[in-house]
Each structure stands twice: as structure tokens, then as C-alpha cells.
Amino acid sequence: MNSCVVSASELFQRAKEMLNDGNTYVEIDFIEPDGEIPAMLGFSAWKNGGMEVGYDPIESV
Questions:
Q1: Would the pTM count as exceeding 0.90?
Q2: Taking the CA atoms of the chain, what radius of gyration do you get in angstroms?
């Protein structure tokens, strides 16, 4: 399994944003580094029976 280290405060802020938007579930994707682009965590969230919403990824440190 791939992993990356991200800022705890950025992760908390993203989770707060998704909760404040009323989302119930979140899918977290590991995005592989590519050249000058660092590894990242990507987020998609949705409410029960609702439409999926994408959120800005968090770059690894």
C-alpha cells in the first residue's frame, strides 16, 4: 500500500470542509508523484444518496 505524509492541520481543515458541506462519506485516493508533482491525497465526498463532490488534494510534505 502506498502512503505519503501530509500536514495534520491541512487534513483536519479538509475534513472540516467536507463535514460542513454536509457530506457523510469520503473516498481518499493516493496520487502517485509524477516528475515535479509531489505525491498527494485526493478526496471525493458525498451525502447519502447524493452526488459525489471533489475537493482539492493535499500535497505531501
A1: no
A2: 12
